[in-house]
Every structure is written in structure tokens, then in C-alpha cells.
Amino acid sequence: MNALEIKNLSKNYDRFQLENISLELPQGCIMGLIGENGAGKSTIIKAILDLIQKDSGEILFYGQKLDDSQTDLKEQIGVVFDTIHFHEMLTPVQIGSISQLTYQNWDGKLYQEYLEKFKLPEKSKIKDFSKGMKMKLSIAVALSHQAKLLILDEPTAGLDPIARDDLLDIFLDFIQDETHSILISSHITSDLEKIADYITFIHEGKLLFTKSKDELLYDYRIAKCGEADFQKLKSEKNAVWRKMDYQYEVLLPEGNKTEANYPDCQFDHATIDEIMLLYVKGERI
């Protein structure tokens, strides 16, 4: 079963268009949503959460459309943004009391366990928390109302490497039972290389691809070559390239199959960052 399905989602603004986005997030998986600033990632998340009016398309959670009457379905979706949305004069204890009145499936015992696990002082005001502590508090709330799907918008942005690594471990623990799923938008592609099962790449409002992370990191190659080999390589299927000072860099989606045909080129596995960079700044036939 898919935790989330987006079918032909479109949204038009004066200077930006999100065009016919479709993707499927299988249950038990993590999908990373990547793209440059302004590509449309946040627009997709806002449309998923019904924070903006979409122009066309359909969004399904576990095969169902979300409407105001489906309280149980809503509580299966946990949302975490890059900034905390609780008043900073509140304490974790107070937030727990408010959440108990907000969510019918609120689990106060589980929330307490997360506060202890994350080492969050129960009676300290949020204004005194570090950014990492605020993020962990948001995640504790999201996980304590029986959420099965987490939607995360830049949750590790601005965090130090230790705090980021702690959060990634939390996300991996969350999906261990294979019924929970995560959609995570992030500019920190090294984080996605650690935890994601799938990568969806959005560029200028269009879906460039959704692929398994393993396929991206295994199949994609960057060939570094001179003019003669470049003239041959650029005609390979879906090749993308850019001219450097003394050579060409050519991104080949099926480079694992092509490498042996060009013995004079240097072939390297492509990182997600490099794939993004070449798709955004490179050229193609």
C-alpha cells in the first residue's frame, strides 16, 4: 500500500507553475524531496497539507482523500517544519496538555518517553531551547498522536552534525516496523543519502524523476573527458553535461553500462549533490 499518492498536482502563480506532479510513497519507506530554492518543494508540501488551493490533481493518504470529517486519518499524519510552531513561552509540559485536548489519539505516556529520550527539560520554556531541541520537541509531538506518515520540511536545516545525526536515527527508528513512512524535503542531500529509499527531484515546478536512492548512487556516473570523447558521450541516452576549464563533465544516468565503452574517460559515481548540480546547470540535447 502507498502511504501517499500525488496524481497530476498543478498550482499556478503569476511567476511560477507547479506542473502535473505525480509520485507514490510506499508504506514503510522514506522519500527525499530535492530541488533548488524555488523549485516547488514547499508548494508540494503545502498542497499535500491543504494549506493552499491546488488548481488540479488528487492527493490520497492510504488510498483515501483527506477531508474535514476524517479526524482519524488526519491524526495519522505528523508534520514538522524547519521552525517550531508553538509559542516560545510555553514549556513541553504545557504543550503536552494542549496536545491532549487537540488530538483524540494523544498518548501522554509516549510523549513523556520521547521527552526523556530526547533529554528535553519538561519545565523549561521553548525560548531557551537550541534549534535542535526545538526540532526534537516538534518530532516528539508528531510521534505522540499515533502518526503513521511524517511530512518534514527541512527538519535538519541549520543543525550541527551531531544534532542532525540524532534526528536521522530517530527517522530510521520510526520506519522500522514497515508501516510508518516519511516524506522529507531537504537541501542536505548527504542526509538523504543516509536514510532515503527514494529520491524525487523537482526542478522549476516540474518532476524530473523519482528513483530509488540505490539506483541513483549505483547507476549514475560522471564522466570527465576531452573534446573527442565528449562528442560521442553527449549523444548517450539522457546525458547532461557542462564545460569546465580543461575538460567536460558528463552525467550519464546509465553510466554503469556505458563506462567500458570509453576507456580514456575518468568515470566516478555521482553523488546526489552532483546529480542536482548538473541537471540544474548543465546542458542537454
Put the structure in a nutshell.
The chain is of the alpha/beta class. It contains 11 helices and 14 strands.
Report the average pLDDT across residues. Answer: 91
Overall tally of domains: 2
CATH fold label of the largest domain: Rossmann fold
What is the H/E string?
EEEHEEHEHHHEHEHEEHEHEEHEH
Q: Tell me, what's the shape?
A: elongated
* Cα end-to-end separation: 38 Å
The CATH superfamily of the largest domain bears the name: P-loop containing nucleotide triphosphate hydrolases
Structural class, by secondary structure, is alpha/beta
Radius of gyration, Cα only, in angstroms? 21 Å
Unreliable parts: none
Q: Do you know the CATH architecture of the largest domain?
A: 3-Layer(aba) Sandwich
Number of β-strand runs = 14
Major pleated sheet? 6 strands, mixed
H/I helix tally:
11
**Strand content range:** 25-35%
**Helix coverage percent:** 25-40%
Top CATH class of the largest domain:
Alpha Beta
Largest beta sheet: strand ordering: 6-7-8-3-9-10
